[in-house]
Amino acid sequence: MSGPDQCPSTIGTKQPARDRAATTNGTGARGKQLWRSVDEFADSGEFRPFLEREFPSGASELLKSSRRTFMQLMGGALALAGAATLPGCRRPDHKIMTYSRDVPEEIVPGKPLYYATAMPLPGGGAEGVLVKSQVGRPVFVEGNPRHPINQGATSSWSISSTLCLYDPDRLKQPIFRDATGEREATWDDFRAWSSTHFAEFDATNGRGLVILADAKTSPTRDAQRDRLRARWPLAQFISYDPTGENTKTNGLRLAFGRPHGEMLSLESADVIVSVDADPTRHEAASLKNARGFGAARRLEATSDSMCRIYAAECNYTPLGGMADHREIVAPSRLPVVVVEIAKRVFEATGDDASLGRLLGAWDARGPSPISAEWLDAAAEDLLNANGRAVLIAGDSLPAEAHALVAAVNRAIGAVGTTVSYVPLDPESASDGVGQIAEMVGSMRRGQVKTVVTLGCNPCYELPTAIGFEDAFKSVTNRIVLSEGPSETASHATWQLNAATYLEAWGDVTAADGTVSPVQPLIAPLYEGALSDIELLALISSERAAGDFETQPSGYDLVRDVWRSRFDWSDFEQNWKRTLHDGVVAGTSQRGTRGIDASGELYRNVAGVLGSLRPGPVPTDGSLDVVVTVNNMHDGRFANRPWLQELPQFGTMVVWDNPALMSPATAERFGLTPDPYEVKEPKAQMATITVDGRSVDVPVWIMPGMAENTVVLTQGYGRRVCGVVGSGAGFDVQPIRDTSGSRVYTAATVSPARGRYPISSTQNHWSMESRTSIVRTADLPAFEKHGDEKLKTKDSYGKSWKINFGERLGELAHTPPNISIYENPYNESQADAAEGSWYSERPQWGMSIDLSLCTGCGTCTVACQSENNIPSVGKTEVRKGREMTWLRIDRYFTGDPMDPGELYHQPVACVHCENAPCETVCPVNATVHGPTGLNYMVYNRCIGTRYCANNCPYKVRRFNFFDYGVKRLNGGLRDEIPDGTPTPNNINLIPPRLREKLAEIQKMKMNPDVTVRSRGVMEKCTYCIQRINAARYEAKLQDLENIPDGFFQTACQAACPTGAIVFGDLLDESSKAAKAAKDGRSYALLGYLNTRPRTTYKVAMSNPNPALREPVEDPFHDHGSDGGNDYGGDYGEASDGKAAFLDPSKKHTDDGYAVSLRVLSAATGVNA
Amino acid sequence: MSVLFPKWMNAFPTVTALAAVGGLASVSAGTFYYATPDFWEVGYMPTQPGGGFNHQIHAGELGMDCRYCHTNVEDSYHSNVPTVSTCMGCHTEGKLAPEWDPGVEKVGFIRDAYAEDESIRWRKIHHLPGYVGNFPHHMHVQAGVSCYSCHGQIVGMPVVYQAESLSMGWCLDCHRNVDEHIVGPSKVTDLVWVEEHLAERARGEQNATPEAQAIIDALQASKAEGGPQNCGACHH
Q1: Which residue, A254, A709, A919, A955, has fewest beta-carbon neighbours within 10 Å?
Q2: How far is CA A1021 from CA A155, A302, A672, A936, A1017, in A?
């Protein structure tokens, strides 16, 4: 990477980046070049000024055009200000409203309450959560420590569920539509109508009645379903997960004879071989898997062992990005990898000769996508781990491959150690999309009289090929229960407003079988909203004609079901306890072996092996297409701005779902997007066609993807969704076939008309191209040197010792900078003088383990929820104005055409002891506190942005507009692909024209954190509101110090892998203090003498020596310890230019250029 | 002689002067009214529903403890305004002896609100700006800072008004001189005693009680906590 060289011994010896890329060794910890985008890797001349700007060019411009427009606008504004009075400045007349007669005793204003509940996950499963309630308002979601899936962590889905609750776009009351138009109705109207309507089905035994529901594992809903079927045996109840065929469940059905779910215990794994698996995201047990991954990779001491990961995949997954050995395989060729590994395993174990023979004779229809050495090494590691190994496969593989994976895991003895199986209810295990396709036929033929949908959106989320929408419109009675506006709800005759899980009673079963109660935190916000179980019970109950009053309550429904389900001697006591704990004790299932007899399993697998046929190797004319999901899932989360604005894994794209291709593939088709230095980069539109079905989508490049492969993402391009989600991205449902499968072969790609703007944060907030930001090492190096300390001299000539982590960076050969300021606090907590600030407890610090960060982004969303951080919208992100305090930098390694590991580095304010921001603030708005925190005092800030300019970590965020107090809304017309103005995503309105927040949205705000207004700088506070609350609590409890673990920061609590540790550095026993003293800890940019309180731990890899020789001496310290003269990023001497002559220093000052043009136009001088 | 100026111009200086004075006055008034931070307004005494709660009678003459109504002041950031049912603890019809009953015209609005289960919309007097985190009442009371120090002699107020400026400088005056204000947790609500005691302490005629002195000593020994003066203690 380019940038000023801080090392006196290497100044002037830096090679141009292009040459360096050619000479660095892409493998091994030494010589790795880290890059975030292809532009950065290529280091084109235009790109450097872009990186050097603190905000991307254009970020600080009010309008698209120039400062001339600005002057015109301001002139107008001044004239107006003179004429008008000053509204809104009148002394606000605040009211205090107390409870009146019915006073809830437990509520103490100012003290939040926490309730245990559970969020049903899309596709089945649940997360157990604790919801924080402030005077009756749910404001924050934390993981329930007692829930076996969460154990305290959360996912971005559950954290953002409070946004869904307070979404102003939610449906607020029932709407009735008929030929004469639409009318607002009430629930009483619906109840009265339904009492007679559903009684009509008694005559036909329910023929003509169809209920569609989202896949959900809820005992009470199942009971309601059974009740409905008991009354109307011919009624159809279909629950489905629209995102794709559940090949894993089906594969285990083939292997075991009945459907099973796979339960991984990654914490027991010494070897993981992943074939396109993505166990840590978007699955029912993701949080458990992520925790297991964290435990398997965690290194506390040099003697610790570390799990080794092999991955073969078509696009980066969080697990694959962390893998020690990763190979890129086209999706249609992935089954070959499973078979090749199985072949080797069965050869070695000789477990089942017939299966082994079949595998040997299996037709791979082409060459193996991975070298034999790699497969040998992976298979050998699987076999030699004594069962502490696991082979996992992803949903893009066919069911037969999953069956074979089960056989391999059995053969290597993994079952019971790293993997076990949970039997599933056959009905909930079926994906239902096939049933719907059949049912659409009868809808078309007019055999369906009434369709009821519960919490699903079939008009959008099903493959277009099924033709559901038209068939649905032909049905006479269309009853849609939906939380927010949806494509299906807009066609409903009865559009009913649903209650969210925070407003209604229910229950739900998690992936491991744990049953949790869903208890409401608040009464339904909008008129009588019902949950799915309440509506089902209403429909199936026998009521008198015209009865509008009888309404079964969710509370009774759940309790009735539980009474018969659980054998409790004292129901009330157990019920109360369950509500308190959030889980029903003893329901967590121990996984089984599927079927006991291995022989039977192998026979089953051998029987289906013949139908496992890999596709041909994809070519230019016949590409592979994978349809995946991300944070939007099937589109149900599209109206949550936090999730829309969370940079997507790998691409860092926000608000869109471009088709992904490898750089080479995109180039061959002429689909390469604009390079990033273009102010508003656009992506080329392309038509992707499979079997006559096609979609038009923009194309974005993703290094590390398989060639001739296209990755599409579902859940975007909602047509009716609310102001946030409507029109964001592109709907890819038209390309899917009626089976809803995820992988398609023989696709063609051609450029389409138009270019489409894409916002990606991948090059934002660059740390001035400084080096040694992410440090990596191989396990043997740590084992050898992890406990050593290198003696060297500090800036003042005193001798000091540096650890393993620091030896990988500049400090190994150059002392830190000396501050030119007389800084009274120029000491650190490590060597604080007696009686000084830093000698007194507590001294806060954080440690982030780069070995464990998978880049999932949960911390970012948790921070946003806790700290009232606004979303800004797509165009604002494009200008570099995103507000998230905690960003996750993503670095590729190696060559863009064949990148290696993916590193993720969460960066928020590191709370420097010698903070550069503090010295430049003209108004002392950012100052230091006695506990080591760098404070940001909003009311002092006048918005000079000097601090952001001087921050080497680029962690300060500026409110260019009133993002926090205005809504994302409007009516802007933005370009659509072919360039004609059409209403696109209406949240793109410029913020200055946005409306104020709706009252309901204000309820989401955390009352302990200031809502920032325009012109104010902000940044991570280490959750100071939580620190202060803990400080008070410790005092009230008469504790001398705040004990470790007394509170957690929002990011720390949310992190699924436990990568973030926070605590008192002076508390010897605290995790944070131990982490700071760890051999792998290093201070990011520590040579600047900023003395950050957040330290990082070196990202470790554990390569197999058979595939790559681990680097044992990766140091940066000029041969003092066996390394060569040049460490990480330094190549051979070449051009001899000193650092300050670096061409990247020549800024292109856009503002200056514009003013020159304006001047020359006015004076006629040719500037 | 030609008329250089029309006759109405004779009034010009007067009109100009008047306009200038008027303009200045309205600018000053406007600035005062619109642009002064509202939490600075010492003496702010809004009209409360039903004429307001008479602290002079309840806390002064009847000697009710502050914490009888402001129940959470020792446990929470907020010192809560009592619920309507707290008022009804005494003012339910027929509960008080006739000679004590203030009569329907005074407490009727409480009974109405209670009957309807509706809030009484009390007007907030002491107001801190949004960029100040919650003012921790519990910490101050536990540290022995009397209600008097911030709210003034409430027991003498028939209608409550803002007694102190609540500006940051005013906060810091106390945080820098904790020894002048701490009276000890056992005395915080004894406002009459506190007023005299603090005045005598200021004149040097009295010493802090042993309970108060212990807290003062502890605070002054701790650099970080000695009446915290760092920004992050309040602003977040």
Answers
A1: A919
A2: 22, 33, 40, 8, 12
CA-based nearest residue to A245, from A424, A435, A444: A435
Dihedral (C-alpha) A1109, A1110, A1116, A1119: value to the nearest 10 degrees? -60
Q: Which residues of B touch A96 (CB under 8 A)?
A: 81, 121-124
Q: Burial of A738 by CB count in 10 Å (0-12 exposed, 13-18 middle, 19+ buried)?
A: middle
- Cβ within 8 Å, pair A1010-B223: no
Chain centre distance of CA A685: 26
In order, the DSSP letters of A426-439 are HHHHS--HHHHHHH
Using the 8-state DSSP alphabet, how is residue B32 labeled?
I
Tell me the C-alpha distance between A868 and A864, whole Å. Answer: 6
Q: For residue range A811-840, what is the model confidence (pLDDT) as tens digits?
A: 877 777 776 666 555 567 677 777 777 888
- Identify the residue with better confidence: A1041 or A983: A1041
d(CA A983, CA A971): 7
Tell me how far apart the alpha carbons of residues A1034 and A931 are, in angstroms, rounded to a whole number: 15
Report the distance separating Cα B191 and Cα B183, nearest Å.
Answer: 10
Tell me what pLDDT residue A91 has: 58
User: What average pLDDT is seen over chain A?
Assistant: 82
pLDDT, residue A49, reads 55
The closest alpha carbon to B126, from B181, B163, B178, belongs to B163
Q: How many CB atoms lie within 10 A of CB A830?
A: 13
Lowest-pLDDT range, A753-757, A944-948, B114-118? A753-757
Q: Averaged over A205-209, what is the pLDDT?
A: 91
Percent with pLDDT over 70 in chain A: 84
Q: Give me the mean pLDDT over the A1070-1080 stretch.
A: 91
B89 to chain A: nearest residue by CA?
A101
Q: Output the CA–CA distances (angstroms, integers) from residue A904 to A871, A1032, B155, in the order listed.
A: 22, 35, 61
Top mean pLDDT of A131-135, B39-43, B175-179, B227-231 is at: A131-135
pLDDT above 80: residue A86: no
Structure ipTM over 0.85, yes or no: yes
State the Cα–Cα distance between residues A102 and B83, nearest whole angstrom: 9
CB interface of B with A, residues 147-166, below 8 Å: none
Per-residue H/E/C for A269-296: CCEEEEECCCCCCCCCCHHHHHHHHHHH
pTM, rounded to two decimals: 0.87
Query: What letter represents residue A528's amino acid?
Result: G
- As a whole number of angstroms, the distance between CA A695 and CA A713 comes to 12
Chain B touched by A1015 (CB under 8 Å): no
Calculate mean pLDDT across residues A392-406: 93
Q: Is the minimum CB–CB distance between A1035 and chain B shorter than 8 Å? A: yes
Say if B30 is an interface residue toward chain A (CB within 8 Å): yes
Best of A85, A86, A90, A91 to substitute, by most chain B Cβ atoms within 10 angstroms, is A91
Helices (H), A640-770: 641-644, 663-668
Interface contact B38-A92, CB threshold 8 A = yes
CA A233 vs CA A174, A240, A536, A667, B70: distances in Å: 28, 20, 15, 57, 61
Q: How far apart are CA A397 and CA A338, in angstroms?
A: 9
Helix axes A353-361, A598-609, angle to 10 degrees: 20
Q: Give the DSSP H/E element, type plus range, for residue A529.
A: none
Q: What is the DSSP letter of A91?
A: P
Q: Which two tokens stand for residue B92?
A: 């339910």
pLDDT in tens, A589-623: 888 888 888 888 999 998 999 899 998 999 999 99
More confident residue, A464 or B94: A464
**How big is the CA angle at A106 (ends A102 and A108), to the nearest 5 degrees?**
95
pLDDT confidence of residue B208: 85
